[in-house]
Each structure stands twice: as structure tokens, then as C-alpha cells.
Write a structure and sequence with these properties.
Elements (H helix, E strand, L loop, with lengths): L4 H6 L1 H4 L5 H10 L1 E5 L5 H11 L3 E5 L24 H12 L4 E5 L8 H5 L4 E4 L4 H14 L2 E8 L2 E7 L7 H4 L12 H4 L5 H18 L8 E6 L4 E6 L21 H4 L16 E2 L1 H9 L5 E4 L3 H4 L7 E3 L5 H4 L10 E5 L4 H12 L4 E5 L2 H8 L8
Parallel strand pairs: 1-2, 1-4, 2-3, 4-5, 9-13, 10-11, 10-12, 12-13
Antiparallel strand pairs: 5-6, 6-7, 7-8
Length: 383
Amino acid sequence: MTLTSDQYLRYARHLTLPEFGEAGQEKLLRASVLLIGAGGLGSPLALYLAAAGVGRIGIMDFDVVDLSNLQRQIMHRSQDVGTPKARSARRAINDLNPGVQVETYEEGITSANALDIIRKYDVVIDGTDNFPTRYLVNDACVMLGKVNIYGSIYRFEGQATVFDPRNGPCYRCLYPEPPSPGEVPSCAEGGVLGVLPGMIAMIQATEAIKAITGIGKPLTGRFLRYDALNMSWRELKLRKDPACPVCSAKPTITKLIDYEQFCGLKRGDSAAAPAEDIGLSVADYAQLRAAGTEHLLLDVREPFELGICQIEGNLNIPLGQVPSRVGELAAWKDKLVVCQCKSGRRSMKALETLKKHGFRKVRNLDGGILAWGEEIDPAITAY
């Protein structure tokens, strides 16, 4: 292909690089990249790849822009709050580089749609924050022979690598089994430094450009860990697992599976439930409150979260303090205690702690305060 005069000007700093030149820019213009997630990682990724001149960018995200996203998701603006993230991403990319073709998918990636969507793109970049999706994206990319550029963030730390099924290990080689449900908090629960996603996303964008143009040494087989607090990097070697169920010579997983089931997690679930029924739906809890049934609502979120939204009449003891403050709840040992957090994960851990200390009537509010806001009280602010 021949660059236009506008493209010569726009990409001039690329063209002056001897290792890159016109050939490299033309490869970018012909390439396609699928971004799975338009949040903390997806935002800078979309902007950098669009600025670099990737010809076609797919944006896949089922969520809408929330005010709490703007601390780190730099692609979105205040006026985008309430707008689907994929739509907001299209606007941002078009504003930056109208020459980029943008394809949006306002849906989550699933076992039903993954192969059909991923096969349309040269490179896939995983910007998601949950284990079922990471395993799904990995398996689909291995089956289709696509490069999968991985990144993750949490609090002050980030990770990045490149999974190329043709030349190195895959995600399952690194993590053969998912962690127990609830064992690893999400960014929403544990927090994240606002600038951290930008650092990891820049690594992912760099690796995508290298994969497309063929320049440099890829991160395949190398795993970068970044500590923002200490401004330090650590590189680990990754090796292909000869017994990997997906990328080995004799795979045992040859089609996409139910990844929520594989990770032991369905919507509203967050930890392996005891044999007895300990979940309480928000509808049932609303009826319980309406009937005036005596109970204690134990909110185990952090104090700042109560400033965003809360259910009236709660007692707040952050999860980390529950073991040391369980004595304060002695009067409720034989009475009904309903544990509640944001989504049901932390409250499940609190429930388990109370059970170990002899509390007999403990229930977990399924879906947490987010479900309460969705189904019962629209005044509750999602965050």
C-alpha cells in the first residue's frame, strides 16, 4: 500500500525510525487488533494503538462508563458517564485518528461468541480483570493461533507478558488452575493506583506493535512484574508446559468450555459455599426488612465505601477487622446476622469467620449492595 500525504505527516516520527520506516507503518495500517475490555488497560491501549495507526481496532465491553472509572480510564470523559464504554471508546478513537476503523461489541465475550469474533483479528489484547474471561480468551487464542497480549493490575502492582501459542507458553502454562473463588480481590475491592494501568497498557501496546511489525524481541516466554511503589521491575522466565491441556502437542481441551464453572464462580457467587444454604437474595432480604424481622446487617466494606452508598441500619466492621472485633458481636451469636459488602465476596469471608466463632444464623447477601441497588433501591450508586 502507498501512504497518503496526510499519513506521511501523521506518522512522520515512525517513518524516520530506521527499524520501522514505511514498511512498518504499512503493516500497522493493514493490521487489526481486538481489545477485550475498554477500562483501565483498554483506555490507554485504544488511544496508543489508534495514534500509532493500527488500521482496524475492535472494542469489546458490555459495561457503561461510571464516575469511579474516570480516576484511571483516561479514554472516557465526565460527559460519557452512563454511556456504553465501547461507544465512548469509538468517540475517543475517532477524535484522535479518524483514519482508524473502529468495530464495537457492546457485549461480554463468551464461549458462544469468542471464536467467531477473535478469528477476525490479527492480535488480541486482554484487558479484563477476572479469571473466567482470561482463561476463555487464552483458550480461544490458542485454538485459533492468535497472539494474546496479557496484562493485569492490582493496587500498586502490574504484570504483562505475551502468550504466543506458536512460540511459547500460554496462560494455562502460567496458571494451570484458577485460584479459589474470592481468594484474589478485584481492583474494585482492593483498589488500584490511577496511573498504574497506563504503565502496563503501554507495555501491551508496545508488544502489539512489535508483534504486528516484527521488530524487536517480544515478551514471549518472559513475565514482567512492576512495583509502582518502589519503581522496580522483575522479569521471570516462563516455560511451556508439555502437559498443558490446551497448548501442548496432545491437548485435552479442544473446544471452549463453561469458564465460570471452571473457576467455581457464577454471578453472585464468590466463595465455595458450605453445604447449608447461606445465601440470601436481595428480594428475600427486602421482605425480611419489611416484616421487621430482628437481624444485624453487618457491612464489611471499608468506611469510605459507606460514603458512596449504604443500606440503612448497618453495622460497619471492615473485613480485615472482623477477626479481632468478633467479640463485639457476641450478643448476635444465636440471632440472625446478614453479612453484606459490595458484591458478596468479602461478606462471604466474613460469614466464614463468624461461623468458625460459633455464630449459628449467618447469611450472605447475594450480589451485595450492587444487587440491592439494581433490584431494590435505585438510589444506590453503583461504583
